[in-house]
Amino acid sequence: MTNLIVEHFGEPSSPRDARAFELTGRRATDDLAGRTVWCAFGLPRANELAHALRERFVWAAEEGVSASAMPVVGPDLLRRLASRLDGMLRGRDAGDRELGQMEQEVYADGVESGESLVGQDVRPGDVVVVHDPLGAVLAEAIRERGAHAVWHVTITGGRAAEAAREFMSRHGSPVDAYVITWRRSMMAVMPSADLVTRRELSAGPPNDEEHRTRTEEVGWSALVADVIRDDRHQTVGGTRHARPGVPAR
User: Is the pLDDT of residue 123 over 50?
Assistant: First the structure.
């Protein structure tokens, strides 16, 4: 049975609660210190997602955590296939033509050339968060570098999305973790460790952008710290932990 760890970031009710929340952020930056969180994107749609993620780590720079963009530039055939897979993952119809032998060969070539697409600056212990299927092709090369491969995914139902996920699972390499975000909730799924960690972020007062931003900053940092600690560990399932936390104002 999968382990599930849940942490709630509510509104502060006391200075002690606010300090507890900030301690969560400091623990995360302690784990991430000296590493770079790479925000990888290959398709135009993912550029905005990667930029937003970099913004969520700006606050941690003083703690020794870097965040950098990683544009992924692949061959035209691979980019077209990645764009098609991206559309399918978001529920768009795949059309009459199935993903066949030609697509399999293009994808396999992309995986084999992943080392050259990653670039030279990714170091052991770094975290590479990919935001689209073109970036996901790099998972094997990222892991071979000793870095952690994380895919920020969009969950969509339907046959097209299922076909795209099955294709990528069959012909690509596994990532260390999948991060799923929706509304005010964020989750890291680590298949090898049979572990799921989840952060629930309160909505906060209306129009309080500072509250919203701060909870997302600490939420993302804590989630990525979970990954580097636990993504390759063996765990025993069946335990559910709840850890309360509140944001500072």
Answer: yes
Q: Does residue 132 have a pLDDT over 50?
A: yes
Instruction: Look at residue 196 in the predicted model and tell me its pLDDT.
Output: 94
Q: What is the 3-state secondary structure (H, E, C) of the chain?
A: CCEEEEEEECCCCCHHHHHHHHHHHHHHHHHHCCCEEEEEECCHHHHHHHHHHHHCCHHHHHHCCEEEEEECCCCHHHHHHHHHHHHHHCCCCCCCCCCCHHHHHHHHHHHHCHHHHHCCCCCCCCEEEECCHHHHCCHHHHHHCCCEEEEEECCCCCHHHHHHHHHHHHHCCCCCEEEEEECCEEEEEECCCCEEEEEEECCCCCCCHHHHHHHHHHHHHHHHHHHHHHCCCCCCCCCEEEEEECCCC
Which pLDDT band holds residue 183 (cuts at 50, 70, 90)? confident
